[in-house]
Specification:
There is one protein chain. Helix content is 18%, strand content 30%. By secondary structure, it is α+β, with helices and mostly antiparallel strands. It has a domain at 25-123: Immunoglobulin-like, CATH 2.60.40. The radius of gyration is 20 Å and the shape is globular.
């Protein structure tokens, strides 16, 4: 009986511990416009996102594509790390240098992408807290 209870407790503890892991991806939103600067409403578009290391135009360490449909405001909501790719998001060496994201769009919904721009990925509050929480320095809640 003790072995059965210990087994059940161990399985439950392992299952609960997986809920505390950081997600392997992050959110990305954009309003999609055509070459004339008109917002593309309720349209299928092709999007390619590339994470580059070191600088804008630096070494591409991860590339993925999406085929979303814009909403009534021309907005797309994506989760980087879940698109179509041959790369492995989990192998990005985040602590090793700065990273940039290049956005390329095909307004006709295909894969003939045009680069719209590149911007540096910055820390978010979740990451700023996480960098200190593992060493006991994080804020305490009372």
């Amino acid at each position: 009986m003790k072995k059965i209870l210990l087994s059940i407790f161990t399985i439950a503890a392992m299952a609960l511990s997986t809920f505390g892991q950081a997600p392997e991806g992050f959110k990305y939103q954009a309003v999609v416009r055509d070459a004339g600067n008109a917002i593309l409403v309720n349209r299928a578009v092709g999007i390619q996102l590339t994470i580059q290391q070191g600088s804008a135009g630096g070494t591409a360490v991860y590339t993925e594509t999406f085929a979303p449909t814009t909403n009534a405001y021309g907005l797309v909501n994506l989760e980087i790390g879940t698109g179509t790719t041959l790369d492995d998001f989990t192998t990005i060496d985040w602590p090793n240098g700065s990273y940039f994201i290049e956005t390329a769009i095909d307004a006709s919904g295909g894969s003939n992408y045009s680069v719209m721009g590149t911007s540096q990925l910055m820390s978010v509050p979740y990451a700023l807290y996480a960098k200190t929480s593992g060493n006991g320095v994080g804020t305490s809640r009372t």
